Amino acid sequence: MITQGEVAALEQRRQAEGTRRAVINGLERDPELGFVVTERNGAVLVDAGKENGWTGGYALGMSGSFSEEDADWFVSFFVQRGIAPRTNLNPFAAVESLNVLGQRGFVPRAFENLWFHSLSEVAAVSFPEGIRIEVVDRDDSEMVEAIGDLVAGYEAGKAPESELLENARRSMRIVAWDEWCRLFVARDAGGTA
User: Contact 28/180 with Cβ under 8 angstroms?
Assistant: First the structure.
């Protein structure tokens, strides 16, 4: 049977690989994006802009070890770009990662619960009557941009910072371009998304 640590490692690597691939596919379609991605020992670092939620380290310490050299690589990647290094460190990451990052002044900012469920035990999802889920047409640039606005926290009459808004729109365009990703929208009976 697979252990919790193995499930965590698989999920962290899935997130790292999915983000890496989405950034690379986005750059192939639009080299002007200027995103940067690098990887080492199964970990992936992404620079998608200071305010972009994709910017950060993925799967750090999930390969079973985390050395001083790994920490130097992580920190220098972001410092060279003028971005504060950040990552979500999984509780199943190598213990050395806590020590090595702690020695460099990193502290926890937030804690999240990890939850997983065997797919064999998950019943089909049912939605309330009148709610339908639709796949967004990747060529529908207006809808893709609207989803980017939602991601940026846009509210009618109150626009977010322009850099944050453009980063969110750019990120959604990358997801829409990636053949392995899909965007979904939920609509009510009146058609409101």
Answer: no
In this prediction, residues 150-176 reach a mean pLDDT of 66
User: Does residue 8 contact residue 62 with C-beta atoms inside 8 Å?
Assistant: yes
Please count the other Cβ atoms lying within 10 Å of the Cβ belonging to residue 75: 17
| Whether this model's pTM surpasses 0.90 | no
Helix or strand run (H / E) with residue 184: strand 184-187
Residue 4 burial class via C-beta count within 10 angstroms: exposed 0-12, middle 13-18, buried 19 and up: exposed
Pairing status of strand 56-58 against strand 43-47: antiparallel
Torsions phi, psi for 113 (to 5 deg) = -85, 140
Give the separation between CA 192 and CA 48, rounded to whole angstroms.
31
The answer to whether the beta carbons of residues 55 and 47 sit under 8 Å apart is yes
Q: Which of 141, 140, 142, 164 is nearest to 153 (CA)?
A: 164
What is the structure's pLDDT at 64? 80
Give bridge partners of residue 121 from the DSSP assignment: none
